[in-house]
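[audit] Reproducing an earlier prediction to check determinism. Same input, same settings, fresh worker. If the tokens differ from the archived copy the diff job will pick it up downstream; this log only records the rerun itself.
[audit] input (466 residues):
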Amino acid sequence: MHFSWNAALMSLVLAAAGAGIAPAQTVDGGALGPGGGSGTLEGLPWQPIEDLRTQIMPGSYGGVVWCGSPPADRTRLYVLSGGLLRLIRITRPGGDAAPPVYTALPNAAAAVNGEVRSAAFAPDYAVSGHVYIAVNGQIDRFQRSPVDPDVFLAPPTRIINLGTGGQHGTGSIHFGRDGMLYIGAGNSAGDPQNPRQLGGKMLRIDVTRDDFPSDPQRNYGIPADNPFPISTATNAPRPEIWHVGMRNPWRWSFDRATGDAWLADVGDTYEGTDIIRALAGGLGGGGAVGTLGLPLLNFGYPRYDADVLRNPSTPLLAGTRLHKPNIVFPRSDPHRDGRVRGFNGASNAGGVVYRGTAIPTLRGRYITADTVNNWALAFSAAMPYAAPINLTTQLARTTTGQTQPLNFVVAICEDADGEVYICEYGSGRIRKIVPAPLPPPPPLRAIHGDEPLDGLDHDQEETGRQ
């Protein structure tokens, strides 16, 4: 069922919101087919994944929360940690056929005033030089230096002030295919079902214009197809709102191949991941081309905790569509239908769908982790209800032969090539997921006789070992 807005429905929504009345809801997020847009089925549940390792990036990044690259930039990996934006240089002296070389630069690319959460490079970064950094409770824009392309100028420009930050403040931010900036805002900044507050919402703004020139805390425009228009009325809904009903959308991502959005919401008792499917070129459900789903999907909180009815007396915002999560981790394992059995969740770290080229058998898998319980799983993006593959042991093994268990994973991120990195807040490590090295081949032997083709006396070597 598609949701369409018209003047009569808008009037009903505004009136019902003011009266606290919620009409019947249409449940969204049920049966899912393959993701839209890719035309291929990769990462099916019965397809095995090759052996994996993690490569520890150079440098120490205490308090790391995010890493990523500018669009199409294969030479830079920026890192957010400890209030700093830092840079790891990527070089390929052996060409694309050889593993890249990573070098941590000693100086910070930018100093950020506040508790950093995530970042997003503008789609036109190569021209504009703009990077947007989410600091808890606000979004700031930094400008790349015209003299040194590895650093950013201070002071930044305040884009939006969300109000109170708190533990459930600003989460991931991403630019959609429509060019709009999407902001995950936790419920520390407001009631998830109250349209007059920004907390517990997915916000959508246009950073290429300013609809509020007299307000230094609102340097952005409101897209014309946002559900609520700009209004000067005291109790008017906030025009930045796109989706509602979230507790803490700490980490979410777009599948770069299909446009599907994978949204991890940290719950009270259950950890939910919602998939907003791409249809007709849009992100989730056939809205305007490039948008993140139809407007005003409702993820249910606090009436629902993931897909569990917890507060039946709390109404949902009128005129919204309830979207129940597609993957649910309980904080204890009640073995109920629809849950991932054997893996308890405590804090959903979200993840990404792997679309890189270094690990073909991992393509089409949603890689996710739990911050507290320190496990990592791979789900089939095409069939997310199927049992996941446990990657925890493999990802603890490093390319240097050590075993270093995952330690407080807070983000799983991508570079420009779609290769995947794990950010560990607890250890200050950044790991890159790579294929395990191939074992050395056995010695070649002649077709006739027992003499090896390499000319060495292997029998003597074996005797010497005994």
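[audit] rerun output stored. Observation attached for the diff report: The longest strand covers residues 152-161.
[audit] end
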